[in-house]
Amino acid sequence: MTQDKPLGILFDLDGTLLDSLADIAREMNAILAEDGLPTHDHDAYRYFIGGGARHLAQQALPENRRDQTEAYLDRFERRYGQNLVVETAPYPGILELLRTLRDRPMPMAILSNKPHDMTCALVDHFLDEFPFVAVAGAVDGEVKKPDPLAAAPLLGALGLPPERVLMIGDTKTDMLTARATGMRGIGVTWGFRDRAELEEHGAEHVIDSAPALLDLL
């Protein structure tokens, strides 16, 4: 990198640190099947995830049911909230990466568009050994990624200017968040979207494995 050395990291959660696709797809499909609605394969859910739970519910529903998004969102959040960690797990190399960053030390935070209580529950379950300075998910009525106001409290907790922070994520939402705030967007290809989307939306670098992040530091 040609800029000053990064001093902190802001991570996305789903598709970046944790592979939660199977649990999300299973619970939403179960609700659709209960009502005799078409279900979707897991690859379709790669594109439903990233904009928050409401966007997920809306995209999963057929167009003639999207006026009922709020009701399906409520059902999904209740059902998925009870089954967060059935198949979900950290991606390969993530725990080792985080241990290395912890030992440097490198200040870290997490910003997700997943509902805040679920975000915290997953971090507590899988990542409680790591000293994240802040963890934030989506809260009803408040802005979410890629709005720069969603990232502002996390940058404040890191105590760093945005240009010294890497935003690590797997979707265009994360890269747009980086651009909107002045952070440096690093896309990862092991998550829910592909390299082309990340590069198109401003990724400074795209990496294919967790250890590759260390090379950028």
Task: Give me some keywords for this one.
217 residues; alpha/beta; Rossmann fold; DNA polymerase, domain 1; 6-stranded parallel beta sheet; 8 strands; globular
Topology summary:
Blueprint: E1 8-11, E2 18-19, H1 21-34, H2 42-48, H3 53-60, H4 69-81, E3 89-90, H5 94-103, E4 108-115, H6 116-126, E5 134-138, H7 148-158, E6 165-169, H8 172-181, E7 184-188, H9 195-200, E8 205-207, H10 212-216
Parallel strand pairs: 1-4, 1-6, 4-5, 6-7, 7-8
Antiparallel strand pairs: 2-3
Helix pairs in contact: 1-4, 3-4, 7-8
Report on the architecture of this protein.
44% of the residues lie in helices and 16% in strands. The chain is α/β, with parallel strands linked by helices and 217 residues long. It has two domains: 8-19 and 88-216, HAD superfamily/HAD-like (Rossmann fold, 3-Layer(aba) Sandwich), CATH 3.40.50; 21-81, DNA polymerase, domain 1. Strands 5-4-1-6-7-8 form a six-stranded parallel β-sheet, sandwiched between helices. Strands 2-3 form a two-stranded antiparallel sheet. Helix 1 (21-34) packs across helix 4 (69-81), helix 3 (53-60) crosses helix 4 (69-81) and helix 7 crosses helix 8 (172-181). The radius of gyration is 17 Å and the shape is globular.
CATH arch. level architecture of the largest domain: 3-Layer(aba) Sandwich
CATH top-level class of the largest domain:
Alpha Beta
pLDDT averaged over residues: 96
Q: Write the H/E string, N to C.
A: EEHHHHEHEHEHEHEHEH
How would you describe the shape? globular
Spatial extent as radius of gyration: 17 Å
Indicate the structural class: alpha/beta
Q: What's the arrangement of strands in the largest beta sheet?
A: 5-4-1-6-7-8
Query: Helix amount, in percent?
Result: 40-55%
- Continuous helix count: 10
Tell me how many strands there are.
Answer: 8
